[in-house]
Amino acid sequence: MIANNTVFETNHTGDGVSGGGAIRVTGGALEVDHSTFTNNSAAAGSDGGAISSEGSGNVRINDSVFDGNKRVGNQNQYGGAISVKQPGVADSTVEITNSIFTNNFSSASGNLSTGGAIRIFGTPNLKSVLIDNSLFRGNSTKIAVAQSGGAIGFMTTPNSTISNSTFIDNTSTRYGGAVYYENSPDNTIINSTFAGNSSVLGGSGVSAYSSAVAIDSSTFLSNALGVHGTGTQIRVKDSVLPKLANPAVTYSETTLAYAPSLFTVNTSATLEKVSETNFVAPIRTDGAAYKAIEGARTLSQAQNGVDRKTPLSDVGAYETPQTYTVSFESNGGSGVDPIEGVLHGAVVSAPVDPSRDGHTFAGWTLDGASYDFASSPVTADIVLHATWTEVTEPEVVVPQIMPGSLPKGTVGDVYAATITTKGNGVATLSIDGGALPDGLTFDAVSGKIAGKATKTGTFRFTIRADIGGVFATKEFSITIDKKGFVGPCSAPRPVPVFSDAPLTHKFYKEIDWMECMKYATGWRMPAGKPEYRPTWNLERQAMAAFIFRMEAPKNYRAPKVSPFRDMKPSDKFYKEVAWMHEMGYATGWAEPTGKPTFRPHLSLSREAMAAFIYRLEASKNSAVKSYRAPSVSPMTDMKPGMKFYKEISWMWDEGLTTGNRVGGAKEYWPKDDLSRQAMAAFIYRLVTDYRKG
């Protein structure tokens, strides 16, 4: 199993489960790197509050943090954070490097408990153990009859090495406040520091039972009892030990006669080149954290130096609180003082906004991203950069007159259309040339053209829009037909135009009419007639093309700048889509930043088709625009309040859709894709039935 850059928090195994509140491995290897284990736990009959490896292979843990994990219950409890038990693969190894273990504990009521942070039980296949460059602080074994190893407990573990590590304030209610060995040969502790650890019965720093331990270049300070052993071979060399109470005596290099506070009398031990110190580790009350890895390295360097009596406080066993500076680069604005002395993990308040001529302050960024002061803990020196928005004089904008074209009318029928503008302000409108059809009037305030035409013909006129002396003009035309006018294509042709729409086709009349009116052209083929492809889904851009051919003036020119992010002037149907947008028939999808998108190749849904047609008719007819949908839907799959409910209800009321019969009811199926043949039917009904009615 491999865990990399992962957080395990508040996981738990219940009574009788084999262990590993966060991870349990049986039979395989385990690799953990750059991960965090917090407040995980295992209950009675389990091992390893965070990780349990049993009968498995190699275990590798690097650059990880274990805090507040626990192993509790009323049976034998092992390994508050990690338990490695009886590897099942020959010559397996355990390596724990560059890691931090704090406030983990193992507790059992009336039974055994070993290893507040780590328990390793090596028999039969474990080859070696390495614990390097790691910190153990505040770990413990608690409230049991026989508990040992406040930080680490080794049981039948051969060839273990602890190097470059620091053990501070770990506790055991029996032996080994920091480290405990039992039936474990060939163990080494080198370049490591033990300070402020405690145990009740012995070996507050290190305790060993029937084991061999070599301690080299290490420091033992302010431990209640230093090194303890029973039936054990212990060698201490080139190390710093607590100063003895009797100033008249010193440690012997060959005997233990003057070291009752360090070793028990039944320990077989050898002392070589040991030094003394009077330093007593302080109790921190200011919230400062131990700087684990760097502190251990600094101690190791000091221990390898010439002066064996260098005070521990001078070589960095305890660090002052780590603080940082938050600096501000105003990028041309007024200066902002840095915030100094920020504790690790603290947040800072935003300073007073800087100022800059001709600009508006837009916020602070870190590495190009907006910086949130309230939710950004400081863990290093940082520089925040000011961002600015340039303040510019309002640009003179020539009014844009809309729509692109005006609808046709019929003699004697109510006509309605509206002229609108876009620009920096409200435009004053006027007719600057030409004339409206007889019977129609123009309201210069609202821009509405209304009335009943009395003559046929095409009438051209020019609209002028003036905003603060900046004006624009646009020519319009309105065609008035006589009542009952029957245009071309009133009857289907006897010879099909499209090869895939024969006379017998369900929608032959509608498809033939679409081609006759030049609303649809189909696909040219290498030989023979073109194809209409009636069952294909209709794309949104094709719908735009249909409506454009029906309504747009022939001289329409599309803008050079696209209104949609996903449409370029060179795209097929760009002109048609741009006209749809200009007329207000197509709005597209609003995007978080920048222009909307049209999504030309998406299939058109039946509800979107209804929206297009409703907007088209509402732009010409005020009665359509003021339509109110019924409070009770005529179709069972449409309800008031649903998107496009109004548009679909209008289509139903005007007979442009009949819905789909399902049992005894009608449904509209708004989300279904619309086919090209169905679109032909909708447009045919709109022009030949609805508009003539």
UniProtKB/TrEMBL annotation:
One of its GO terms (biological process) is carbohydrate metabolic process. Coiled coil: none annotated. GO terms for molecular function: calcium ion binding. Its main location: other. InterPro entries: Cadherin-like_sf, Ig-like_fold, InlB-like_B-rpt, Listeria/Bacterioides_rpt_sf, PbH1, Pectin_lyas_fold, Pectin_lyase_fold/virulence, POMP_repeat. One of its GO terms (cellular component) is extracellular region. SMART domains: PbH1 (SM00710). Residues 560-627 form the SLH domain. The keyword Signal applies. It is found in: Cell envelope; Cell outer membrane; Secreted. Pfam families: Chlam_PMP (PF02415), Flg_new (PF09479), He_PIG (PF05345), SLH (PF00395). Keywords: Cell outer membrane, Membrane, Secreted, Signal. The keyword Kinase does not apply. This is SLH domain-containing protein. It comes from Leucobacter viscericola.
